[in-house]
Amino acid sequence: MNETNSNLGNKTIALVGSNSIHTIRYLLAIAPYFKQIIFITNAPWQDSKHNANNIVTYTLSFKLLNIPIRRQIADILRKHQIQLVHIQQANSYAYHTLKAIKSHKLQCKTILTTWGSDILILPHKNIWFKHLVQFNLNYADIITSDSLYMSGQIRNLAPCAKQLHTINFGIQNYPDSVDMT
Questions:
Q1: What average pLDDT does this structure show over 119-136?
Q2: Which residues does residue 56 pair with via DSSP β-bridges, in sequence order?
Q3: Cα 140 to Cα 87: distance, rounded to the nearest angstrom
Q4: Closest Cα partner for 152 from 136, 170, 135, 137?
Q5: Tell me, what's the pLDDT at 171?
Q6: What is the pLDDT averaged over residues 27-47?
Q7: Which stretches within the chain are classed as H helix?
Q8: Which letter, b or e, does each residue of 28-53 get, where b requires 16 or more Cβ atoms within 10 Å of its Cβ?
Q9: Is the pTM of this model over 0.70?
Q10: Of 168, 123, 115, 160, whose CA–CA distance to 140 is shortest?
């Protein structure tokens, strides 16, 4: 761990998202940088290969109509004195988590990492899903997107969103001069 990340080693954060390979890979990538990660997800997860013993997992049902989940999320965040919540996906995971933070007046900062389907498909299914995604985008403190096109769509959906960062994973800068011949 380098000096710029050394202060993170004493922090506990919450990661909220589906128990998918993408979320698990992210979870394992950040695990060495935090004292503890509270992983709130939809299905049981156990790590037998990676020795990540600083991850505490809570399994909850993120179905849209599961209103009691909001109190459960708030209780977990309070119990672990969470100050930073990173939410993967701008769907029911974000909706319930942001509603929990807002309705229980928690002082957590939130990062919302949008997935392509959250922005490019879900809002076009029906007006209710569009409002759900807009709520998520408007109430997250920071939003991340992995393409300029998707960032543009986020701005169309939520022009007043607080902070939007486009992070192009796997895209490298071209050299100063490129010989195209």
A1: 97
A2: 38
A3: 9
A4: 137
A5: 53
A6: 89
A7: 21-30, 69-79, 92-103, 116-120, 127-139, 148-157
A8: bebbebbebbbbbbbeeeeeeeeeee
A9: yes
A10: 160
